[in-house]
């Protein structure tokens, strides 16, 4: 009996995915819930598991091909045994013979044995297959070998004298571009700035970090202070936590804070759900968990859905000042930046303090200047005197 392997629903806004890698070959057996194929969406990479035990009968969508949600990825055979039937064995042997024959044909016209997907990527990126090192014992070049070569060549292309390199944008990069441009075209974007004296926060971190780490097994970072300050400021200025839908304003009574994380594939924004209910330790722990999942490519749709406001920390890359773009349909985003010692005036005296520039980009259609400035000033006040954050009053 045959069944169809379907692209699962991956989120309300996701309509298609790209098959990035088949984990099984035609004829291979598998157990129930065993991953069969890896697909990439505009947000995450997910593995599609087997709905039952069986074998892979047919591949409908090849690697590198787009498929709509609900589309058929392949055909599964539910009848499964430890030893494949003679017909399956024969078919698999014929498939291997065809592949060997194809490889022999390739050697006549190509200096390197390679898979179709490897040749496709090589052709798209102007890569000569004879320069690619195979990871297989038979010398055959597969897709992963070409990707690995492409990654290393990006770092040494200048030494090779290559003046230009054409690389196809990944689906996640295409989506990032589309949404950022959409935010610029749709929202009335404006940015307001301020600066924060980080002395008090740094003193708390220095004096309490060891005790904090022994209790929560994570370091006390800056982000937990900013999340706490943002939540309190959002409670005071609810329009910054709202969104526009059609001709209505939706005010959110929950505080799900997006934390922008840079990965090799691009920027993702996992969500810290119900941040107003979390302690400092819980915030730091969850941020580390989400950041690790983002970099490992194991974020789920639930991790990426439902944010009401975003924090982006360009300071970790050394940024001194920037104007972040809102993550639609949200109406505001806070940009953190590098901490630098600067001369400032305190009580009519020039002193050296660790200062950070902060930026609030917002949708002026829903947030007035008074609210945006008030919000950012509140964040500044809470961080320069964090007793309210620490004591919870």
Number of helices: 10
Low-confidence stretches: 81-90, 99-111
Average pLDDT figure: 82
- What oligomeric state do the depicted chains represent? single chain
N-to-C span: 64 Å
Secondary-structure element string = EEEEEEEEHHHHEHHEEEEEEHHEEEEHH
Largest sheet composition: 7 strands, mixed
> How many domains comprise the coordinates?
3
- Give the DSSP E fraction (strand runs of 2 or more residues): 15-25%
CATH topology of the largest domain: Chloramphenicol Acetyltransferase
Structure description:
With 393 residues, this protein is of the alpha+beta class. The chain has 10 helices and 19 strands. The protein has helices spanning 86-109, 116-124, 143-156, 171-186, 199-216, 223-236, 280-296, 301-304, 369-384, 387-391; strands spanning 2-6, 16-22, 29-30, 35-40, 45-49, 54-59, 66-68, 72-77, 189-197, 243-245, 248-250, 257-259, 261-262, 267-268, 271-272, 309-313, 332-336, 339-346, 349-363. Strand 4 (35-40) and strand 5 (45-49) form a beta hairpin. The longest helix is centred in the N-terminal third of the chain and has 24 residues, at 86-109. It is elongated and about 75 Å long.
